[in-house]
Write a structure and sequence with these properties.
single chain; Endonuclease Iii, domain 2; elongated; 13 helices; mainly alpha; Endonuclease III, domain 1
Length: 213
Amino acid sequence: MPTLTRRTLLPHFEKVDLIMARLIKEAGPYRLRARPCTSPFKHLAKTIASQQISSKAADTILKRFVKLYPLVNFPKPSQVLATDNQTLRGVGFSAGKVRALKDLARHTQSGLVPNTRALEKLDDEDIILRLTQVHGIGPWTVQMMLMFQMGRLDVLPKEDYGIRNGFRITYNLMHLPTPGELAHFGERWAPYRSAAAWYLWRAVDLQTVSKIT
């Protein structure tokens, strides 16, 4: 898995976008480091559990969920499919999340959601196309997985509010760029759009700090 540093990124951005290069200098070292997941099914099941609730609530639900299957560290797709919906609702999952979990389990069994080794052989767009066929999994969720679990270097989550806001701050705009505008402008950042996205998040942090101080 490639490891990038600010030193390796700056020559590229100084050629293609001096404003982004200045942000990189101001924001400090590049610290995005992927934490590989051993199972796409497990990672996405946890993601589904945590959607639209606090991390504390999600942790509680996941602990109850795992306790349903005492003989394994984490349930297998076949076990989830064999569990009735009311039992899953009983640990705290909403009806929508039960549907999403079972859809994820079915697609994992069919091979549409592959194991880690097979997933790593696919390109970013193919991964997004596959995984977003699961109910409850959208492009943003997959893009976060590509960046933070798979270490893909050229991902730009154009719908992400924080990234769009960071762009507005960095480029001194009155309004947020549309996702399409961000994607079009960001083409110049390839093949390091993941790094650009990470630094745009940092731009928001820098503004917050400056307001406090």
